[in-house]
Specification:
Blueprint: E1 11-15, H1 27-35, E2 40-42, E3 44-47, E4 53-55, E5 78-82, E6 85-89, H2 97-100, H3 128-138, E7 141-142, E8 145-146, H4 149-154, H5 160-169, E9 181-183, H6 187-193, E10 200-204, H7 211-216, H8 222-225, H9 228-234, E11 240-244, H10 263-269, E12 273-279, H11 294-303, E13 308-311, H12 314-322
Parallel strand pairs: 1-2, 1-13, 2-7, 3-8, 9-10, 10-11, 11-12, 12-13
Antiparallel strand pairs: 3-4, 5-6
Helix pairs in contact: 1-3, 11-12
Amino acid sequence: MTRTGQNTAPIIIAHRGASGYRPEHTLAAYELAIDLGADYIEPDLVITKDGVLVARHENEISQTTDIATHREFAHRRTTKIIDGEVKNGWFTEDFTLAELKTLKAKERIPQVRSHNTVYDGLWEIPTLSEIIDLAQRKDVGIYPETKHPSYFQSVGLALETPLLAILSANNYQGTQAPVYIQSFEVSNLQYLSTKTVLPLVQLLNDSGQPYDFVISGDARTYADLTTASGLAEIAEYAQVIGVNKNLLINKDSRGKLRSPTSLVNDAHAAGLLVHAWTFRNEDFFLATDFQGNPAGEYELFFSLGVDGVFSDFPDTARMGKSHQSPIT
């Protein structure tokens, strides 16, 4: 098992599986990611009506499943406000696991990844338990994200207790366990830090603020959390920052990369590891500097000293990593 750290080679985290090659959050995507060299596989976690954690990008599932074709569920289409945004569709918390298992996954961004649409309708929504079984069988780590934790707590389906119960039941214990728990919110990570010593990851976007800050009236933004004081606060409850790569190297108005920021060094000085997201091969997602050369983008970011990368294409990430000497 590859362990990350400031004195070890960086890890490759398969972002929702090998989602550049298979519809995301399917066992097929996770298994292919492992075959392509991922060290960790990443499930975004939402929850069912009967309290089972499953992997979906969002709790609204019309973009990632064939639920719209299931007439028996047509009456459950509804509108909700999730983290301040109005969403219309079908939501995992309104379905039992047995009902969700009748659905099939589909490609979320077919306009960019039309080649993945040939796999639409082949695979079920996986549970966290099924993903853990695969990860342990293949000897890789898991990197679960708690999605919309404040929202789920507000509807009586908090994610944290069932997550810790499943991890404990599967022998994920101690600071060196092959698992990272991540969140864009702060308060649920602070709560988790009082309940577990498993590694925690504070996700940081390049705009906006944690939604629990919105709820509580805290005016601080993600940018505020990247300051010296913000990083010191994060280090009190988490071991890693998972950062939008724009926070490490931003782009100018023409889409070209600017000079690197000091965030990697600042985070390391605060005792935090840095995992950057999200790396993708398609020119649509790349800075103009690396269009047609996605491996080169990895080489640049690895040269900054990042401790891990989230990638939709783990094989390309490994190619970019192979051109870098391990940090010693």
